[in-house]
């Protein structure tokens, strides 16, 4: 059975690619286009996983920090989905549960599933 996944992404082409990879796997996808709506969706929907872009207005780093301050979000993996692969270690140091690189590849679904185990 699928789980609820929040996707915070403003780039239409990236959002289409991400949802295409996740659709059909039984997951409930919740879409937000910016950090503010992502935070509200996280509070309202209580996803099991959050995938977020780093470039404003998505601004995954700010979303991560805001979620970690809010009680009850410590156990939810927040994964950066980014083109900035060279920043992987600094993203992990700031508190992301993981980093998935763009462009989205065939490995995307297995990478996402690894955070749901």
Describe, in plain words, how this protein is organized in 3D.
This protein has 117 residues and is α/β, with parallel strands linked by helices. It has one domain: 3-Layer(aba) Sandwich (Rossmann fold). 39% of the residues lie in helices and 20% in strands. The chain has helices spanning 12-22, 35-45, 60-69, 88-94, 108-114, and strands spanning 4-8, 28-32, 49-52, 78-82, 98-101. The longest helix has 11 residues, at 12-22. The protein is globular. It starts with a strand and ends with a helix. The model has no long low-confidence stretch (mean pLDDT 91).
Pick out its properties:
5 strands, globular, five-stranded parallel β-sheet, Rossmann fold, 117 residues, 20% strand
- C-alpha termini separation: 13 Å
- Please write the CATH class name: Alpha Beta
Average residue-wise pLDDT:
91
Question: What's the arrangement of strands in the largest beta sheet?
Answer: 2-1-3-4-5
Brief summary:
The chain is an alpha/beta fold and 117 residues long. The protein has helices at residues 12-22, 35-45, 60-69, 88-94, 108-114, and strands at residues 4-8, 28-32, 49-52, 78-82, 98-101. The chain has one domain (4-114): Rossmann fold (3-Layer(aba) Sandwich).
Topology of this protein?
Blueprint: E1 4-8, H1 12-22, E2 28-32, H2 35-45, E3 49-52, H3 60-69, E4 78-82, H4 88-94, E5 98-101, H5 108-114
Parallel strand pairs: 1-2, 1-3, 3-4, 4-5
Helix pairs in contact: 2-3
């Amino acid at each position: 059975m699928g789980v609820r996944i929040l996707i915070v992404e403003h780039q239409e082409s990236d959002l289409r690619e991400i949802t295409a990879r996740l659709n059909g796997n039984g997951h409930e996808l919740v879409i937000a286009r910016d950090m503010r709506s992502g935070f509200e969706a996280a509070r309202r929907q209580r996803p099991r996983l959050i995938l977020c872009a780093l470039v404003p207005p998505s601004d995954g780093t700010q979303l991560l920090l805001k979620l970690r301050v809010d009680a009850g979000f410590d156990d939810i993996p927040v994964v950066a989905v980014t083109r900035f692969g060279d920043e992987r270690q600094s993203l992990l140091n700031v508190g992301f549960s993981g980093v998935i690189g763009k462009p989205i590849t065939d490995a995307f679904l297995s990478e996402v599933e690894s955070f749901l185990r």
